[in-house]
Amino acid sequence: MLKLPLSLFALLLSVASFAQSTLSLEAYRDSVYMNSIELLDASIEIDRASARERLAQIDFLPSLSASGSFTTDFRHSGGADLWSFTLQPRIEQVLYAGGGVRASHRRATVQRQTAVEDERMVRLDVRYAADRAYYTLSAMQLYRAATAEYVSIIRSLYRIVAERFSEGYVAKGDLLQVETRLSEAEYSLLEIDNNYSVALHRFNNLRGKLQSLEVTLSNSIVDSIPLPRRVSINEMLARRPDMRSAELAIASAEQGVKVATAQYNPRLTAAVSGAWQTHAPNVGGSTYVDGAVVLGLSVPIFHWGERRASVAIAVDDVRRAENGVVQLRRDAAQQEADGWSAMQSSYSQMRSSLHNLEIASENLSISTYSYREGQATVLDVLQAQISWIQLYTNAITARFNYAVAVSEYYRVTALN
What we know:
By secondary structure, this protein is an alpha+beta fold. About 65% of the residues lie in helices and about 10% in strands.
């Protein structure tokens, strides 16, 4: 009698025992984080935003500059020397720039905070991609093991039918039916092997491995994955990095309005300058030092409506940012509802498929035994085999869908 275990998942978890490494889901996530180009770019953007913030802060500080010149003549004039020079250092401080300096610094700070939130969102996306690749490889391993098991069952049946045929107990048609089923199963195994190779390539590529390295997964889609609690809309919106980034975009645009306005406000500066230079004309090469305190005021008066147009553009940016927040709220709410429904549905399908699989496994065992005892036809066994492989495939698919749905819900709600 051909015996099948009631829980075939436990048997098929021993696939790929020849692999070169064992990798948990957490370790795989870490390796994907380390090799993610998206995360690297997001980190670079944070550095750039931090540098822009430092540049904006520098505008609060006084500036030191110096200019100089050296002149030489071709002919003497009035007994003066042929050369002369002047060196003029200058310290300047902006006392008032219409609020533009402060607004620019605040906008740069908000943009740095936005870059940090964007990096967090990218990390959520990368984690989901890692989970999906990990679960896909796990599913492909189970598919391959199940198909190999199925081929083994068909071969066992084929040997029995061939023996019965040689003894004259079964017709040629029964033998051909089983042989056809065996050929189809072997063809399916080749196709599954190819799908497994593709999943393995994707798995290794995400963690920066260019070669197709075999791996043993210490976690699997058949592990018990707890059903997450449902997150309220307000909690989700407060947690999601892209929502925080969208809100920061409003603050940045509001500071942009102040920057645009400040360009047309009065500007007050103070400066201290000095000069070390030769006398003019330079007689004897003697020099002297002079200095001055300068208070400068610049007042824009008329620019043909340029201020009104510039401010209107900046205000429109604020309105667009506000609309972006409203749209993102709607999209996030829909994503959470869809994610929760998908997770609940896949969980129910998973439980149903496991129950159906136990029934199909028992039916296949009984049908195979009955055929060997002459109490069932080969068609009964073939039908039981088809039912088993279909239900087993459904069980793997349901497990995979549930695992991916949980990971997607974590991504949508920004849960850890």
